[in-house]
């Protein structure tokens, strides 16, 4: 497949406005303004563009959740608070092609008839955020952002908000609080942000990768977009592969490309003599998949059918020298550290799990600890306030299922078996 | 509105009630931490889990948080379901991971919500084998003690402190299991409502630092329903005493008044009754004597003076004591008054007359519902809980207007703030009335400086547009014209407008009902002309009066005998010929009539190890020595107020039936002529801890602002006065040297001074003063 989203991405020297226009940038504005906003939503819906932020919710449907006659002002928030372990796709888009993002935000805001767009950038992506800010200023000077864009009568203000830098800020309502200058605790979802979001005004939030597809869909049509995918997937998809592979990296491939092709062809496969233990398909908060799932197409529904989630399509590979208990402990420590501290199960439950896992990983676990892990993770997943803790429980619960023998051997032998393997190997 | 079922019981609910609220209202226990009736639902603690049966019988029931789920008709809820119980148990287990096991020595022990919930829902044994997280505590000032390790992160403290009371120096910091509730750095909490943290915290993070100094286990405390003695609001309280000493104060719920909270003066002011200098032994001249001896000496002097005996009651003394003194004086044909400053007396009579004629003052709950309010004066210091009620109105979107001369904590929430010298308040009110009635006739009053026309017009617009406007005046810093102008404005706004005054004592309304005509000036003049030989003072401090202290001290020389009954060592008590120490309010029962005219009874809470008689008993004993037949207080009061029945402590209180007062005329505040070039108008820079009783509470007084002369920067610049430079102030009573403090909340040409400084100088609010530079 010819690169679509990454075609004009220059990681070290992003195209400025002139250069971006010379390769066809901002052409979708004309295509957008020539249509009624409602028509754009219909096209996006027909393209079956699904959210690239992790949940895979239909973009067109999400846009419809905000009433067409919702009171003004209305907001569009573009989420670049990419903090999921293993995920670095939005960073590529941000650092390598700010104008593509601006173009996408303009046409999406037009479709939503939103007059203000906030682009929320991960704190650690500060440099990229500043680059984006400069690009917005460039676009403003050229009349692409601001009042009466290109004589269309459509007004849009656009702002970059660089996050204070926490994982939870990527959660939709925590992000709204963060933008408002409040503590980034998630909000109660009733009423929904599409009704009462930023400053209690109707707000739509999309991941940046989702939005950058929109200009291409507008220019080339829904059928073109659907045809780009394979194995039931639609459109291009940015895949990240990391972990125990030769060439970790970012790959733009048809949505639906099987994991085997990603790991063994594009990422160069495993080291000599190693075998695959398993992989996480969609970032830290998705369930482990095993070698038997290598041919599952990396698309939302097939991965879900295999018992995991496509998430951010960020594969983390474990080979036979990787201790899955350590991997899980590492993930739990990450989630314990990133909990916003709002609700009890997440704030105090996840560190509890991490403590139990640490005991098991170091060989000091007890048989009843496994029962305890199952019991507690079930409660935490079901009874927390937002989606953070349920997401955090997914890799733990699946790790306990997929790698049960490894947990037992840690407890039975009183040590980490991988320590011995790795030492003898070295 | 509807009915749902909880564990087989049919429970009614109101529209927009969540399950938890409806259940609690029906006395069904659902455990919870972060929910609070005043703060609403949050959904953070996850303890209030209940099981809700699905409407579709094929679907299995769900566990939901009862604080976040609306009650619906026909909803079938189970608190006792195993799934819900398991969630609650795990929540407690999570919370107890880091909570220290210091319950046996914890201040909160015995009234700890976490302890109760742990016993009620938690697992009996601990499974966590890791280390506990620990925090460093902060110094939060003399009133509230901080112990962060006990925190269960329910966010109640910040929701009260920041969201409800609108404070800004306590917040939540950091994240994960290290969320920290405290200040940016160590230091005293600045909110006048900070003490409520002690009660709002469900465990022992914030505890009462004063109670801690002289601690008792809460189950050992003697308690009885009481009324706060520190201002005219009449908040309901629950004092706690042990071993003959008063240890602490808690809020007691009154649905129309203070509800869940009290101010810090109410919580910590009680220390006056344990003050080290509190008079405990009767004294005749300089000799300590027995009660009987003191009584006999007093009776002898009164017999000698006969009708040349007079009595001065007090607005901080209860209805019974004042009524008994008045009755005694009637028997002796002597005079009776209750104020030491005639100007404040006149204003207060006018205020009570205005309240009676305006159809009654709004309760605090009604003030909270206001959609626009005008405040005249510094409400925070004179009636802190009225301020808190207005903050609730502000949070709900009400427009506040403040007309004041000196600093006011409420001003930062005001849509319009008018800072004007004391003597110009009245003209501003009259102009506001004209604006509100939209009668563009020639101004009847001297037109206020034109620069305020726009602000007055703004205020007039939102007061007239409001559905529930409230006007509140601070009577101590007003005179009759100001009070009358507010009445006029209220009348113009129509019956939807409510009028209230913060009065200068817990029982001011009650004493005014006893002495509906002003009598202080006559009494003072009678003393000065030698017509009075013996003066009986109960709970009052005329010799320490800010404006008239000098005159009273001079008049005192005409008295042959000054008999004082009090529980604090005032200047008057110090100067007494015969001092009869009496029980403080928590040591006796009585009745206070609050600013609404609501008579509320308070019960005796405890007895001192060596009990002191109360004022009523002393007066009865005195009458006995004088061989006068004095009826008991109940009889006296039912004689004065038809159908009087003493309001029972712990009830909501009731209005007294009394004939309406008439508003007298009077001049505006300050001296008659206003043209005194080179003079500054004095404004009272009041502080919520400076009432006559709380001034004896050591912990609270640690927070008293340092004495300074507060001047507006522009005015200071014009006069060449610099910040922090010393200036000399000369008043009738003395000279004071103070540093200047520039303050934007002080009116032009006005110098704002603390109550203590006013007393040292012998001037009152609105008086004139000369200021001297010290080079």
UniProtKB/TrEMBL annotation, chain A:
Domain NADH-ubiquinone oxidoreductase 51kDa subunit iron-sulphur binding, first and last residues per copy: 325-370
Needed cofactors: FMN; [4Fe-4S] cluster
SMART domains, per database record: NADH_4Fe-4S
InterPro entries reported in the protein's UniProt record: NADH-UbQ_OxRdtase_51kDa_CS, Nuo51_FMN-bd, Nuo51_FMN-bd_sf, Nuop51_4Fe4S-bd, Nuop51_4Fe4S-bd_sf
Keywords: 4Fe-4S, Iron, Iron-sulfur, Metal-binding
One matching Pfam family: Complex1_51K
Keyword Iron listed: yes
Entry's Gene Ontology molecular function annotations: 4 iron, 4 sulfur cluster binding; FMN binding; metal ion binding; NADH dehydrogenase (ubiquinone) activity
Family: Belongs to the complex I 51 kDa subunit family.
Protein name in the entry: NADH-quinone oxidoreductase subunit F
TrEMBL record, chain B:
Top-level EC class: translocase
GO-annotated molecular function: 2 iron, 2 sulfur cluster binding; 4 iron, 4 sulfur cluster binding; metal ion binding; molybdopterin cofactor binding; NADH dehydrogenase (ubiquinone) activity; NADH dehydrogenase activity; quinone binding
Domain 4Fe-4S His(Cys)3-ligated-type positions: 83-122
EC numbers on record: 7.1.1.-
Domain 4Fe-4S Mo/W bis-MGD-type: from-to ranges: 221-277
Cellular component per GO, a single term: membrane
GO biological process, one term: ATP synthesis coupled electron transport
Family matches, as Gene3D superfamilies: 2.40.40.20, 3.10.20.740, 3.40.50.740, ADC-like domains, Dimethylsulfoxide Reductase, domain 2
Main location: membrane
Every 2Fe-2S ferredoxin-type domain range: 1-83
Keyword Iron (UniProt): yes
Superkingdom assignment: Bacteria
Function: NDH-1 shuttles electrons from NADH, via FMN and iron-sulfur (Fe-S) centers, to quinones in the respiratory chain. Couples the redox reaction to proton translocation (for every two electrons transferred, four hydrogen ions are translocated across the cytoplasmic membrane), and thus conserves the redox energy in a proton gradient. NDH-1 shuttles electrons from NADH, via FMN and iron-sulfur (Fe-S) centers, to quinones in the respiratory chain. The immediate electron acceptor for the enzyme in this species is believed to be ubiquinone. Couples the redox reaction to proton translocation (for every two electrons transferred, four hydrogen ions are translocated across the cytoplasmic membrane), and thus conserves the redox energy in a proton gradient.
Name of the featured protein: NADH-quinone oxidoreductase
Lineage of source species: Bacteria, Pseudomonadati, Pseudomonadota, Betaproteobacteria, Nitrosomonadales
């Amino acid at each position: 497949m010819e690169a679509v989203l990454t075609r004009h991405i220059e990681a070290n020297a992003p195209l400025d406005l002139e250069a971006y226009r010379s390769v066809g940038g901002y052409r979708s504005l004309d295509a957008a303004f020539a249509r009624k906003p409602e028509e754009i939503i219909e096209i996006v819906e027909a393209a079956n563009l699904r959210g690239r932020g992790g949940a895979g919710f239909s973009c067109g449907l999400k846009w419809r959740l905000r009433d067409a006659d919702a009171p003004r002002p209305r907001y569009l928030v573009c989420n670049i608070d990419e903090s999921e372990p293993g995920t670095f796709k939005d960073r590529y888009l941000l650092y390598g092609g700010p104008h593509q993002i601006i173009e996408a935000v303009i046409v999406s805001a037009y479709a939503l008839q939103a007059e203000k767009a906030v682009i929320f950038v991960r704190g650690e992506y500060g440099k990229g955020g500043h680059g984006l800010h400069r690009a917005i200023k460039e676009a403003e000077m050229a009349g692409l952002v601001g009042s009466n864009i290109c004589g269309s009568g459509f007004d849009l203000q656009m702002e970059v908000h660089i996050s204070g830098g926490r994982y939870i800020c990527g959660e939709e309502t925590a992000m709204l609080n963060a933008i408002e200058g409040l503590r980034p605790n998630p909000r109660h979802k009733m009423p929904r942000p599409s009704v009462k979001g930023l400053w209690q005004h109707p707000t739509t939030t999309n991941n940046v990768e989702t939005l950058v597809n929109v200009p291409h869909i507008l220019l080339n049509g829904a059928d073109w977009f659907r045809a780009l995918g394979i194995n039931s997937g639609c459109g291009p998809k940015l895949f990240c592969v990391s972990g125990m592979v030769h060439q970790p990296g970012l790959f733009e491939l048809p949505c639906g490309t099987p994991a085997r092709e990603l790991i063994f062809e594009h990422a160069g496969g495993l080291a000599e003599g190693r075998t695959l233990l398993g992989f996480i398909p969609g970032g830290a908060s998705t369930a482990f998949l095993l070698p038997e799932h290598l041919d599952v197409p990396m698309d939302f529904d097939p991965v879900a059918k295999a018992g995991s989630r496509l998430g951010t399509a960020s594969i983390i590979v474990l080979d036979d020298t990787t201790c899955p208990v350590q991997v899980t402990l590492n993930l739990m420590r990450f989630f314990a550290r990133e909990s916003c501290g709002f609700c009890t199960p997440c704030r105090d439950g996840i560190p509890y799990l991490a403590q139990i896992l640490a005991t098991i990983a170091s060989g000091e676990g007890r048989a009843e600890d496994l029962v305890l892990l199952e019991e507690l993770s079930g409660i935490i997943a079901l009874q927390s306030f937002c989606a953070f803790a349920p997401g955090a429980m997914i890799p733990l619960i699946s790790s306990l299922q997929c790698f049960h023998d490894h947990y037992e051997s840690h407890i039975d032998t009183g040590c980490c078996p991988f320590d011995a393997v790795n030492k003898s190997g070295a | 509105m509807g009915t749902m079922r909880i564990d087989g019981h049919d429970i009614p609910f109101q529209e927009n009630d969540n399950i938890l609220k409806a259940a609690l209202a029906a006395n069904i226990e659902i455990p919870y931490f972060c929910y609070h009736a005043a703060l609403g639902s949050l959904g953070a603690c996850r303890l209030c889990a209940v099981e809700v049966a699905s409407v579709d019988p094929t679907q299995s029931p769900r566990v939901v948080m009862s604080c976040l789920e609306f009650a619906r008709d026909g909803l079938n809820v189970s608190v006792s379901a195993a799934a819900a119980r398991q969630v609650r148990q795990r929540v407690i287990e999570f919370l107890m991971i880091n909570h220290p096991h210091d319950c046996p020595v914890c201040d909160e022990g015995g009234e700890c919500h976490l302890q109760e919930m742990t016993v009620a829902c938690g697992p009996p044994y601990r499974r966590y084998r890791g280390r506990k997280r620990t925090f460093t505590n902060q110094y939060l000032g003399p009133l509230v003690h901080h112990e962060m390790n006990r925190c269960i992160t329910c966010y109640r403290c910040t929701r009260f402190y920041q969201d409800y009371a609108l404070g800004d120096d306590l917040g939540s910091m950091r994240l994960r299991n290290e969320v920290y509730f405290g200040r940016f750095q160590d230091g005293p909490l600045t909110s006048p409502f900070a003490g409520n943290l002690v009660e709002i915290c469900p465990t022992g993070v914030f505890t009462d630092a004063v109670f801690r100094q002289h601690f008792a286990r809460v189950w050992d405390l003697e308690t009885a329903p009481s009324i706060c003695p520190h201002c005219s609001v009449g908040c309901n309280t629950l004092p706690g005493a042990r071993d003959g000493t008063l240890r602490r104060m808690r809020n007691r719920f009154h649905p129309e008044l203070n509800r869940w909270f009290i101010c810090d003066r109410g919580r910590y002011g009680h220390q006056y009754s344990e003050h080290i200098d509190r008079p405990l032994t009767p004294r005749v001249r300089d000799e300590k004597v027995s009660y009987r001896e003191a009584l006999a000496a007093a009776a002898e002097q009164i017999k000698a003076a006969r009708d040349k005996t007079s009595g001065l009651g007090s607005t901080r003394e209860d209805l019974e004591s004042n009524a008994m003194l008045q009755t005694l004086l009637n028997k002796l044909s002597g005079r009776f008054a209750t104020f030491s400053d005639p100007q404040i007396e006149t204003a207060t009579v006018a205020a009570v007359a205005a309240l009676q004629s305006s159809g009654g003052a709004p309760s605090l709950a009604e003030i909270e519902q206001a959609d626009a309010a005008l405040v005249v004066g510094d409400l925070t210091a004179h009636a802190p809980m009225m301020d808190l009620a207005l903050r609730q109105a502000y949070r709900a979107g009400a427009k506040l207007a403040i007309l004041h001369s000196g600093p006011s904590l409420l001003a930062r929430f005001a849509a319009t703030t008018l800072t004007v010298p004391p003597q110009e308040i009245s003209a501003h009110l009259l102009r506001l009335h004209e604006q509100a009635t939209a009668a563009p006739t020639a101004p009847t009053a001297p037109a206020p400086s034109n620069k305020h026309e726009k602000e007055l017009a703004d205020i007039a617009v939102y007061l007239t547009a409001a559905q529930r406007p409230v006007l509140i005046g601070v009577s101590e810093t007003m005179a009759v014209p100001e009070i009358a102008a507010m009445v006029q404005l209220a009348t113009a706004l129509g019956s939807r407008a409510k009028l209230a005054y913060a009065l200068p004592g817990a029982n001011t309304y009650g004493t005014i009902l006893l002495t509906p005509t002003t009598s202080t000036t006559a009494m003072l003049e009678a003393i000065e002309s030698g017509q009075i030989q013996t003066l009986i003072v109960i709970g009052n401090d005329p010799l320490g009066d800010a404006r008239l202290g000098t005159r009273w001290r001079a008049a005192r020389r005409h008295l042959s005998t000054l008999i004082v009954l009090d529980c604090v060592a005032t200047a008057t008590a110090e100067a007494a010929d015969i001092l009869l120490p009496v029980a403080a309010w928590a040591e006796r029962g009585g009745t206070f009539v609050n600013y609404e005219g609501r008579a509320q009874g308070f019960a005796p809470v405890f007895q001192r190890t060596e009990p002191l008689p109360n004022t009523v008993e002393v007066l009865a004993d005195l009458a006995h020595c004088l061989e006068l037949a004095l009826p008991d207080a109940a009889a006296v009061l039912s004689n004065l107020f038809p159908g009087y029945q003493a309001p029972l402590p712990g009830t909501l209180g009731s209005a007294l039936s009394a004939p309406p007062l008439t508003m007298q005329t009077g001049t505006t505040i300050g001296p008659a002529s206003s043209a005194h070039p080179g003079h500054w108008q004095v404004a009272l820079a009041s502080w919520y801890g400076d009432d006559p009783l709380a001034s004896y509470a050591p912990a609270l007084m640690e927070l008293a602002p340092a004495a300074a002369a507060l001047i507006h920067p522009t005015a200071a610049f014009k006069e060449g006065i610099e910040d922090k430079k010393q200036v000399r102030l000369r008043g009738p009573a003395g000279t004071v040297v103070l540093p200047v403090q520039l303050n934007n909340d002080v009116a032009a040409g006005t110098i704002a001074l603390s109550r203590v400084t006013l007393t040292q100088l012998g001037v009152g609010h609105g008086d004139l003063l000369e200021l001297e530079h010290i080079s």
